Amino acid sequence: MDTLTHALTGLGLAALAQAHPYIAANPQTGEAVFWVAQLASQVPDLDIVVRLKNHSTYLRHHRGFSHSLPAQLAGSLLSAVAVKLFYPVVPLITLWTVAVFAVLLHVGLDLLTSYGTQAFAPIRCRKYALDVLTIVDPFLLVLFTLGAMLWFWQLAQPAPVFAVIFGITGIYVLLKWQVAKSVKCATGERFKAERVIACSIIPTFSPNRWQFVIETKKAFHVGSTTVLSGKVYSEEEFLKPKPHKVIVKAHQSKRLCAFSEIARHRLYAWQEVHGGYLVVCSDLRYRVGSLTPFSVYVLLDHNLKVVKSGMGSSPEKLRFRLAG
């Protein structure tokens, strides 16, 4: 999920820790718990440093090893040790316990989104995505922000407030999980006459509205549906292109190779342009209106050699920042 949500849930975890008599009675310990919860709630996303190498590496490794089981253990321990250096009187086991819960909360929330998270590596190395929450969930942001305001303005005791907030969060996630399952069944039933290869139900900012991508042997069906009415809106069909050497050669691009590893419903298109060919690969899960912002563009010369590549919603917006 987004950085702010992770920070707020880490804050909520620190507030829950105030229920422990030892932490509540020692302000310095409470302060250390707050900082270790904040640090550990962000540490899995330190994989952003690989972006310094190139964007292709970031695409391939984001929510990869840094979210794996060994990294969860190491990240929580390093967070505890780092905070211990500034608060030497606070027991390491206390800091580590809080850090473990903060890291698990981070990875658990990421699992609930549609991006994909390698949370069980090295036991199971594929990326899992439960498609329950959006990357930025307005309900959770408002809920945890309200809790933070009540705590900082000393309008309520932090532990009881966040106990209720985490309880509401659990119920909210379970409800959305059940809704996602029912929507997936109903949508799959609509296309049962076709040979369905894969089906994705993607949450939106509206709890009542869900997007779907149905992939069959010949095409993708993309649209949205409402839970209450069951109606399908703005359904579109995208035929899969026939295999072509231009598309094959475009995979010489490291960016496209990395993108194809994480994109779930890949729609390829290509056209001849001045000086060569332009190949577009889009993940239809993230289609917004007529735009597919999660797309890779690869420019090939007439000898089918990669000239440039980039990411974005349209080649026009990329023409000044395409990078090889």
Describe this protein's structure.
- With 324 residues, this protein is of the alpha+beta class.
- It has helices at residues 3-17, 21-25, 27-42, 55-61, 69-86, 92-111, 138-152, 158-190, 245-250, 254-262, 315-318; strands at 196-203, 209-216, 219-226, 232-239, 266-273, 276-283, 295-301, 306-312.
- Strands 1-2-3-4 form a four-stranded antiparallel β-sheet, covered by helices on one side. A four-stranded antiparallel β-sheet has the order 5-6-7-8.
- Strand 7 and strand 8 form a beta hairpin.
Assembly state (oligomeric)? single chain
Percentage of β-strand residues: 15-25%
- The helix content, as a percent range, equals 40-55%
Largest sheet: 4 strands, antiparallel
Q: State the secondary-structure class.
A: alpha+beta
Task: Write the H/E string, N to C.
Answer: HHHHHHHHEEEEHHEEEEH
Q: How large, in whole angstroms, is the Cα Rg?
A: 23 Å
Number of domains: 3
Q: What are the low-pLDDT stretches, counting only 5+ consecutive residues below 50?
A: 318-324
What is the helix tally? 11
Shape: globular
Strand order of the largest sheet: 1-2-3-4
Tag the structure with descriptive keywords.
4-stranded antiparallel sheet; 8 strands; 11 helices; 324 residues; alpha+beta; 3 domains
Quick structural overview:
Helix content is 46%, strand content 19%.
How does the SSE layout of this entry go?
Blueprint: H1 3-17, H2 21-25, H3 27-42, H4 55-61, H5 69-86, H6 92-111, H7 138-152, H8 158-190, E1 196-203, E2 209-216, E3 219-226, E4 232-239, H9 245-250, H10 254-262, E5 266-273, E6 276-283, E7 295-301, E8 306-312, H11 315-318
Antiparallel strand pairs: 1-2, 2-3, 3-4, 5-6, 6-7, 7-8
Helix pairs in contact: 1-3, 1-6, 1-7, 1-8, 3-5, 3-6, 4-10, 5-6, 7-8
